[in-house]
Design a protein that fits this description.
CATH architecture of chain B: Orthogonal Bundle
Helix content of chain A: 25-40%
Largest sheet of chain A: 6 strands, mixed
Structural class of chain B: mainly alpha
Number of helices of chain A: 10
Number of strands of chain A: 10
Helix content of chain B: over 70%
Mean pLDDT of chain A: 91
Radius of gyration of chain A: 18 Å
Number of strands of chain B: 0
Shape of chain B: flat
Low-confidence stretches of chain A: none
Mean pLDDT of chain B: 87
CATH topology of chain B: MetI-like fold
Number of domains of chain B: 1
CATH class of chain B: Mainly Alpha
Number of helices of chain B: 10
Strand order of the largest sheet of chain A: 6-7-8-3-9-10
Bound molecules: adenosine-5'-diphosphate, magnesium ion
Oligomer: heterodimer
Strand content of chain A: 25-35%
Chain lengths: 259, 312
């Protein structure tokens, strides 16, 4: 249940503005890949191009290839809706559907364009997804209460449960802890460690300790100046990015000696 | 993406000295609020005072000879039926147009379409009436004939069909008239659906319609209810268009495509007023009072519904 992604020569635009230029990388299955880099260097933009969420912004487009399992996700015969079901996403701010209960939130994605689920099937899926997101014990007595009533960290784990209920191959997370307190952050980091045995995980983070704690591979993005495109500077296993980077810019950034 | 939170202004503390600008603004705002209440009370008092003679007059003195409540009941029925038709047709159409403009139409089309709909609100209602009588009603006659032939067993379409000046035509004209307010308000709430919610649905693999169903409609529900109620209020009180379009014969019937229709309160006032004197005028004002009360109730109901749906 996890897949390898090969990106080659990806250029990402907002209208005429080239936001990310010439990125090529391989993302390994059953591993955690972290994206680090200064604000505005295109980490979110690049992440969103991996499940075709980029193009929901008017005028946004992509050139190049993102190949998963031998298939170009941007091929003309590929439906972006299918891509997003295979490559799930968790956002920076927790965004459960406010009018839905906890259980309905978990089932939201699974209920989309699928056949009717039997009650027992639905209950099983709710339980297994919440177990998978380390949230079951905290909410099992109030599954029919609104998801918006949970704490921020619980909401974020609810969003992870909702994403994994669709049974994706890959899970993208865009700074999933940046709106959370330290305890909730640790809970999510533990969860990421657990999830990587089943999923390919890509996480954007501002926090370098977090990158070094959770990830196997780290990619450093940088930007030459405002208005310039962001680029992938280097990508390597996390230990060598932090202890022995090959680029000067990477070393400056990870040692906190940045601009 | 789109995760910027509005920066919160620093909390005001009571200890801070009141500034003159604040005081003036507070005075103006309070005065405006009071003025509304005074005007409303004045209107209500006028209606009651003028209506009173008709409310207490002997039944035989009231037009039709069967008393105030009989006279008014038919008009209330006609008013409610025409407004309900307008709402049943206009609300889904308005919401659909609003969704199309905000979430489906290419941007080049969305803006002009919005303007055109807004323009509908600027057309005087008598123009709608004339258009209804001379263009719309004749155009509908073949459709009514078809309805009477094929669905005539339904009381709604019993006919007979002679001209197009029917209850259904009145309802359709009213539907067009309430379209702008319903569309404009729905469009605003749909436009404000948080991007975060829409992206949550899309990232789960929702199609556009599923995204609208998951994120946009639940978010806009109370706004749509409020918009529909405003439209209903307009349809209840619409005068000239109905006066021109609807062929009235009195009575209570659900037959939507005949020319034997109950009148509506507002149109009846406009039609009867020039020829009324004395108790006749009191009677018309009394029906106006009933309309006033109905409109009030509709607004209360709308508030209750909005309060309930926005909690959910
Ligand atoms: N919706 C958008 N429309 C236009 N430009 C955008 C949009 N979102 C981001 N950008 C631009 O793309 C660049 C990369 O942004 P982003 O991917 O958000 O960076 P990061 O996540 O690394 O902080 C920035 O220059 C930003 O201004
Ligand atoms: Mg970002």
């Amino acid at each position: 249940m996890s897949k390898r992604i090969d990106v080659s020569d990806l250029n990402i635009y907002y209208g005429d503005f080239l936001a990310v230029e010439g990125v090529s990388m391989a993302i390994e299955p059953r591993s955690v890949t972290a994206f680090i880099g200064p604000s505005g260097c295109g980490k979110s933009t690049f992440l969103r191009s991996l499940n075709r969420m980029h193009e929901v912004i008017p005028g946004a487009r992509v050139e190049g290839k993102v190949v998963m399992d031998g298939q170009d996700l941007y091929g003309s015969d590929i439906d972006p809706v299918d891509v997003r079901r295979t490559v799930g996403m968790v956002f920076q701010r927790p965004n459960p559907f406010p009018t839905m209960s906890i259980a309905e939130n978990v089932l939201a994605g699974a209920r989309l364009n699928s056949k009717r689920m039997r009650k027992s099937e639905a209950d099983d899926l709710v339980e297994s997804s919440l177990q998978g997101a380390n949230l079951w014990n905290e909410v099992k007595d109030r599954l029919d209460r609104p998801g918006a009533g949970l704490s921020g960290g619980q909401q974020q784990r609810l969003c992870i449960a909702r994403a994994i209920a669709v049974k994706p191959q890959v899970l993208l997370m865009d700074e999933p802890c940046s709106a959370l307190d330290p305890i909730s952050t640790l809970a999510i980091e533990d969860l990421i460690q657990k999830l990587k045995s089943d999923y390919t995980i890509v996480i954007v983070t501002h926090n370098m300790q977090q990158a070094s704690r959770v990830s196997d591979m780290t990619a450093f993005f940088n930007i030459a100046g405002t208005g310039k495109p962001g680029k992938l500077i280097e990508m390597s296993d996390t230990a060598s990015i932090f202890s022995n980077p090959s680029q000067k810019a990477t070393e400056d950034y990870v040692s906190g000696r940045f601009g | 993406m789109s995760t910027t939170t509005p920066t919160r202004p620093p909390a005001a503390t009571n200890a801070v000295r009141q500034r003159p600008g604040d005081r003036i603004f507070k005075g103006v705002a309070t005065a405006s609020g009071l003025a509304i209440l005074v005007i409303l009370a004045g209107v209500a008092a006028f209606l009651l005072y003028q209506a009173y003679p008709a409310l207490v007059a002997p039944a035989a003195d009231i037009a039709g000879g069967e008393g105030f409540w009989k006279y008014t009941a038919e008009l209330v029925f006609g008013t409610a039926l025409s407004a309900a038709l307008a709402l049943v047709i206009g609300a889904p159409l308005g919401v659909g147009i609003a969704l199309f403009i905000t979430h489906y139409a290419p941007r080049k089309l969305a803006a002009p379409l919005g303007y055109v709909i807004d323009l509908l609100a600027a057309i005087p209602s008598i123009v709608y009436g004339l258009w209804g009588v001379f263009v719309f009603a004749p155009a509908l006659v073949p459709i009514y004939a078809w309805l009477a032939d094929n669905l005539g067993w339904l009381p709604l379409f019993a006919g007979p069909v002679s001209s197009g000046r029917t209850m259904l035509t009145a309802g359709l004209v009213l539907a067009v008239m309430i379209l702008p307010v319903i569309t404009a308000l729905s469009r605003e709430v749909f436009r404000q659906t948080p991007t975060l919610q829409q992206e949550a649905a899309l990232a789960l693999g929702a199609t556009r319609w599923e995204m609208v169903k998951y994120a946009v409609i639940p978010y806009g529900k109370s706004g749509v209810v409020a918009a529909s109620m405003l439209g209903l209020g307009r349809a209840l009180g619409e005068t000239m268009a109905v006066a021109a379009v609807l062929s009235v014969a009195g009575g209570v019937t659900f037959n939507l495509i005949s020319t034997q229709n109950p009148g509506t309160i507002a149109a009846n006032i406009a039609l009867q007023f020039p020829e009324s004197t004395g108790l006749g005028v009191n009677l018309l004002v009394a029906t106006g009072l009933v309309l006033f009360v109905i409109t009030f109730l509709v607004n209360f109901a709308a508030r209750a519904i909005v309060a309930r749906t926005s909690k959910g």
